[in-house]
Specification:
By secondary structure, the protein is of the alpha/beta class. The protein has ten helices and ten strands.
Length: about 260
């Protein structure tokens, strides 16, 4: 079953075509990686899916829903969550508070009922807390529950950001360079989390990543980009051995390339 499709997706910034007629689909329950050199258009595609950018042309589909023109603030409501290259957390709030923010779009109460703290509000708060506690347990973050984000090590903060995205209960999870800034051990741990998110939670993942060891560890399929165009698509091994991909990463001509 196809969960996500990008059809003939393009975006221009002035005279620069940052994404150039990109088409790909992501099957439900797979980890789909996007790789390429700096400036290839990887994060731009994420910004298009997140609706931070408007596409010049093309369509975005989640299942049968065309969300090409959907406002960015409604994306979480469709079941799409995202992490960022640079951690986007509230540093002076606790881990628990940051994860509860991920429950915001699930809120069904209004201002008056919240001011009066009606039984319906109390029940909703308990449900949100239970969901967040499940995420904390899933990621093994119990010891940091009440710690301020500002006091946590960088590697833990990366996992917290992943937890906030999971608190949204997404169908589709966008991971923008999840290994960025992590050491080898932390990167390996991130790989295990991604595998568990796929297998145990059944969440489909699109991942932008430079660390090819992580790509090889977790990815079902890979798409390679350069200058906004698709160079190759297939298994990690097929894509990494593709002459155009080798050329894009290493420069110059590749022996045996057409």
């Amino acid at each position: 079953m196809i969960l996500f499709q990008a059809n003939d997706l393009s975006v221009r910034f002035g005279g620069i075509r940052a994404v150039d007629s990109v088409t790909f689909e992501v099957r439900q329950g797979e980890v789909f990686a996007i790789i390429g050199p700096n400036g290839a258009g990887k994060t731009t595609i994420f910004n298009l899916i997140s609706r931070i950018y408007n596409s010049t042309s093309g369509k975005l589909l989640l299942g049968d829903t065309d969300f090409t023109q959907t406002p960015a603030w409604r994306i979480a409501g469709l079941g799409i969550a995202r992490t960022f290259q640079n951690i986007e957390l509230f540093p002076n709030a606790t881990l628990l508070q940051n994860l509860l923010i991920g429950r915001h779009y699930h809120a069904r109460t209004n201002f008056i009922s919240e001011m009066m703290f009606l039984p319906s509000v109390r029940k909703a708060e308990l449900r949100h807390r239970e969901k967040v506690e499940d995420v904390i347990a899933f990621l093994g973050l119990e010891r940091y529950r009440d710690s301020l984000i500002a006091n946590l090590p960088y590697g833990v903060r990366k996992v917290v950001e992943l937890g906030r995205a999971l608190s949204i209960e997404p169908k589709l999870l966008l991971l923008d360079e999840p290994s960025s800034g992590l050491n080898v051990e932390e990167t390996e741990g991130m790989g295990f989390w991604i595998e568990d998110i796929k297998k145990d939670l059944g969440i489909t993942v699109i991942m932008v990543e430079h660390d090819m060891a992580l790509v090889n560890q977790v990815s079902d399929r890979v798409m390679a980009l350069n200058y906004g165009k698709v160079l190759a698509m297939g298994t990690p091994q097929q894509v990494q051995s593709h002459p155009e991909v080798v050329k894009a990463y290493l420069g110059g001509e590749v022996e045996g390339a057409a």
